[in-house]
Amino acid sequence: QVQLVESGGGLVQPGGSLRLSCAASGSIHPDNAMGWYREAPGKQRDLVATITDGGSVRYADSVKGRFTISRDNAQNTVYLEMNSLESEDAGIYYCTINVYIAGTGLRTNYWGQGTQVTVSS
Q1: Residue 87, helix vs strand vs coil
Q2: I need a labelling partner for 83 at 20 to 30 A (CA). Which of 12, 24, 36, 37 fits?
């Protein structure tokens, strides 16, 4: 089992910045990928950014150039630096980790409980 704890959400004005953090604990295989998804009201949960243990990153087109994902492998922690925030960036941000299930060769995703990001003047 893996547990994820997010922090850093809140209220920010358009054009402002926020930094989200997510710490993973439990049985974590070193070959893993961590990331962030966003769920806006009335919409599905969409990918924001992901990063592998080797540092390969992927971003949604809507956040490229504004958001930066990074991680600390020693601490099993992933960060999302969000700049130039827009109203469309608002929603609940969920942290996720994709890991191997011990002894099976299969992979699964674990999710955090989410942190609210509100962008409003």
Answers
A1: helix
A2: 24
